[in-house]
Each structure stands twice: as C-alpha cells, then as structure tokens.
Amino acid sequence: MAKRDYYEVLEIERSASVDEIKSAYRKLALQYHPDRNAGDKTAEERFKELGEAYEVLKDPQKRQAYDQFGHAGVDPSAGAGAYGGMGFDLSDALRAFMRDFGGFGDMFGAEGGMGGRRPDRRGGDRQIRLELTLREVASGAKKKVRVRKFVRCGTCAGAGTTSQSGSDTCTTCGGSGQIRRVQRSFFGQMVNVTVCGTCRGEGSIVRDPCTTCGGDGRVEGNETVEVSIPAGVMEGNYMTLRGLGDAGVRNGAAGDLIVIFVEKPDSVFERHGEDVLCDLPIHPHQAVLGDKVEVPTLDGKARVEIPPGIQSGKILRLRGKGIPSLRDKTPGDQLIRVVVVIPTKLSAEQKTLYESLAQATGDKPPKFAKGFFEKVRDAFTGS
Ligand SMILES: [Zn+2]
Ligand SMILES: [Zn+2]
C-alpha cells in the first residue's frame, strides 16, 4: 500500500508550526491509542501511521528532507533511513507517544488542554512563489527575494517598550497568563486551561508601550532573503526556510518562510521530468544526406550528427544534457526532435533541381521507415 502523505496523516497544513504538529498528533494519537481501541486493527494502523508521521515532522532535519524528497527522503528502504532499517512498528509508535506525552493517565488529568503553555509569541509563517527559468532549474541558483512580513521594531529592538518603567501584573489572570477552569467529564476531572485574553498569556502588561509598534515589538516591513535553490527542483516543490517568516511578538521566535518554486516556460525547451525536449528544424537535403549541426543546450551549444536518411519526428538524444535529478544529481538527457521543413518558397534554381529530382525518383510512392512511430514513443518512455 502506498504511504500516505505525513501532513495528510496528521491533518495539518504543510506550513504547520512545531506546536501545531504536536497538538495535531496528540489529539489524533489519543483518539487511536491502542489502550482505547483494544483489538481494533484499523485504529492500530492509524496509530502507527501517526507515530511515524510525527517522528519525521517534529524533527526539523527530517522534515526538511521529507519536504524536499517526500517519503524517499526519510524512508529507511531508500537508504537515508530515519529509523535504522525497519519500518515503524507498534512499539516504536508507543515509544514515540510515551516519550513526548508521558503516560496516558496524565493526558486527562492535570495537564489539561493545549492552552496551558507559555504564550505563543512565535511569528507566523510566510509563503512566497519564486519563478525559475529552466536554466536556473538545471544549474541550481541563488536568488535574492524581497519578502513583505513583520520585522523586528527598530525603535524598541523588539522589546515592545523603550522605557524602564516596567510592567504591571495582569489583574485578569493574576500573572499566570492562564485562565483555568475545572470541568467534570466522562474521563474524570478535567482542567481546562486557556490563554488569558487581557495579557495574551504574558502575565503582565507593559506600562509604557513603544509608540512605533504599539508594544508588539514588530512592525510590517520588507526583508531581502537569499534563497539557494538546488538543481533539479520541480514546479510545486518548496523549501522551508526556518526563522525567515514573520518576526515573533516581542522578540519571540520567528516563523518560517516557505518558498514555492514556479517554473517559467522556456521558449526552446520543454521539460519532461529530468529530460528536456527541443525541436531541430532541418532541410530535406540534410535529412537525406545527413549533416552535422549545432544545437542549443541548457549550458551552451553542442554539435549533433544527423545520420543520412533521418525521418521527420525522429528523436536524437544528447546524454547528460538534461536536468540533474534532485536526489542524486544524475542528469537527464536532451531529446532533439528532428523536424524536416518542406520549403514553401523556392528559387528558380531550386525549382529546377527539385524537378530533375522528381524525374530521377519516378512514380513509385515512398514507404514509411519500419518502426517509425514506435521509435517516437520509445524516446519518451526512456527505452
Ligand atoms: Zn517598538
Ligand atoms: Zn492576564
């Protein structure tokens, strides 16, 4: 069975923060935990699937590999093993759950809801689309892009205030930053903890907020970011640049910048995976007699030999002149489709020559070269 997308498994956006990943995992893992679904094989499969997705996505390095290469980037059977050989079994899944969330019991006890943690000052994630030419895709590129986002406030250096007058304890929550409510439910006593709305979980309120940023420690602005694009990316591939999204509130952690690649159409080449295809117009006499001609490639020019008797539509192959594979850098090929162009305007001399050619050829109709259409098809399937 094909592996499901990890983000889909955890029911989260591709831009989800670590906290969102954790929260989504916790919610679903609790729902499908074997202790609560004794003997239910479907729930067990789901629980294992969740554990595996969580193990990859919570780890920034593994996540990046997954974001770039999909399952192949983190799949043990593909060599870059995340779990040292074997797949993710039930005991792995249980261990992953225990490690981050402790026992099952306290999930419904003192810890309560997800609202009980420190205030989230983390900045939001930003998404940009970055256009690349086929040549940039083939060689890899470094590009500078201007990103509109929240940047740290220069007036207060992100602190939210420039004065020394300090802050007052929030009277709504008494300084804890949280509002706690005890509820009784099926699972026993539940403590529902939410972030205090008055102080946004800070526990205190700045007496003298910065007038530039209103106390947030960040303002809307621009930043120029350099993006290194590896060779071989495809339309829709994206990169997550950690910490280059919105600045956090009052020097909180910055969000991420997600760069989505968009391929600009090329006037000469058409991309087919790692191969590129271009047309080569030739004269009838070149097709008949053969020739050596120059063709454009992604990195300059190359000479190709047209064998005598070539048919229109025939594909010539320049090995290694395509786009490198994102995974192992092996380049694809350049496919050159020969197009015999029939002249529509002839000089008097050409006309005479064609007439004598016609006489020499006679009345017999021509025959298709054997396997002509099959060869065209084969060029695209790589055989
Ligand atoms: Zn400020
Ligand atoms: Zn408060």
Automatic annotation (TrEMBL):
Name its co-factor(s): Zn(2+)
**InterPro entries, alphabetized:** DnaJ, DnaJ_C, DnaJ_domain, DnaJ_domain_CS, HSP40/DnaJ_pept-bd, HSP_DnaJ_Cys-rich_dom, HSP_DnaJ_Cys-rich_dom_sf, J_dom_sf
Zinc finger feature spans (CR-type): 140-222
Q: Which residues form the J domain?
A: 5-70
The record's keywords, sorted A to Z, are: Chaperone, Cytoplasm, DNA replication, Metal-binding, Oxidoreductase, Repeat, Stress response, Zinc, Zinc-finger
Q: Where are the CXXCXGXG motif repeats?
A: 153-160, 170-177, 196-203, 210-217
Q: What are the BP-aspect GO terms?
A: DNA replication; protein refolding; response to heat
CR-type domain residues are 140-222
Instruction: Output one GO MF annotation.
Output: zinc ion binding
Q: Which SUPFAM superfamilies match?
A: Chaperone J-domain (SSF46565), DnaJ/Hsp40 cysteine-rich domain (SSF57938), HSP40/DnaJ peptide-binding domain (SSF49493)
Entry superkingdom: Bacteria
GO terms under cellular component = cytoplasm
Where it mainly occurs, coarsely classed, is cytoplasm
Annotated compartments: Cytoplasm
Q: How is the cofactor bound?
A: Binds 2 Zn(2+) ions per monomer.
Q: Where does Zn(2+) 2 bind?
A: 170, 173, 196, 199
Q: Which residues bind Zn(2+) 1?
A: 153, 156, 210, 213
| NCBIfam families according to UniProt | DnaJ_bact, PRK10767.1
Question: What information about domains appears in the record's comments?
Answer: The J domain is necessary and sufficient to stimulate DnaK ATPase activity. Zinc center 1 plays an important role in the autonomous, DnaK-independent chaperone activity of DnaJ. Zinc center 2 is essential for interaction with DnaK and for DnaJ activity.
Function comment: Participates actively in the response to hyperosmotic and heat shock by preventing the aggregation of stress-denatured proteins and by disaggregating proteins, also in an autonomous, DnaK-independent fashion. Unfolded proteins bind initially to DnaJ; upon interaction with the DnaJ-bound protein, DnaK hydrolyzes its bound ATP, resulting in the formation of a stable complex. GrpE releases ADP from DnaK; ATP binding to DnaK triggers the release of the substrate protein, thus completing the reaction cycle.
Instruction: Give the protein family.
Output: Belongs to the DnaJ family.
**Subunit structure as annotated in this protein's UniProt entry:** Homodimer.
Q: Which HAMAP family match?
A: DnaJ (MF_01152)
What is the protein name for this chain? Chaperone protein DnaJ
Q: What is the organism field in this record?
A: Eiseniibacteriota bacterium
